[in-house]
Amino acid sequence: MQSALSEHFSRLFKDLYRFAYRMVGSRETAEDIVQEAFLKMAKSQGQDFHADRTRRWMFVVVRNSCVDHFRRVTVEQRSVTDSNLGIVSSAPNPAIAVYDCERNDRIAKAVWELSPLLRETLILREFKNLNYTEIADIVGCSTGTVKSRLARARLELQQRLQPLMELSQ
Predict the structure, then answer these.
(1) Would you say the pTM of this structure is higher than 0.70?
(2) CB-based contact 153:122 (threshold 8 Å)
């Protein structure tokens, strides 16, 4: 049982870290945010946690910490230089791998340039594979708002990546 619990929290840490990293664009900040979330969970240890509720609660805590981070950091201080979304190329050909890397950098930059509300919705849906209800619970809005934000995020990405899509045709 201890091993299963340890594995669950290890997986949860990785998921939360990836989410925070994609939101804030900084490895150190993402790690700090997730560690703080785990500390909050440890302080609440007296409560009865179930895996699904704990996961959802932790995503809410991390999401709120990311929002707080954006409130503290001005737009000029944010950097796109560390915005790798963790997309890697599996191309065997080095030329194709370079193209994939450049394409992935453009996609990562386009995702990073989305507003935080649109970015978090897109990341939770497309990278974390959460359903609309789970996303609504995490970000504190209705499923209709989640669908609307997701549609806007996809439309903005499509517009920003149009030149890239034309090159690949």
Answers:
(1) no
(2) yes
Residue 67 burial (C-beta neighbours within 10 Å; 0-12, 13-18, 19+): middle
For 39-79, the pLDDT digits (tens) are 888 777 655 666 677 888 888 889 888 888 877 764 434 44
81-95 pLDDT per residue, tens = 344 445 554 555 566
Report which residue type is found at 34. Answer: V
Residues 73 and 31 in one domain: yes
Domain shared by 70 and 97, yes or no: no
Q: How far apart are CA 64 and CA 103, in angstroms?
A: 30
Under DSSP, the state recorded for 85 is: -
And the tokens for 147?
A: 């669908």
- CATH code assigned at 117: 1.10.10.10
Return the structure tokens found at 69. 């981070």
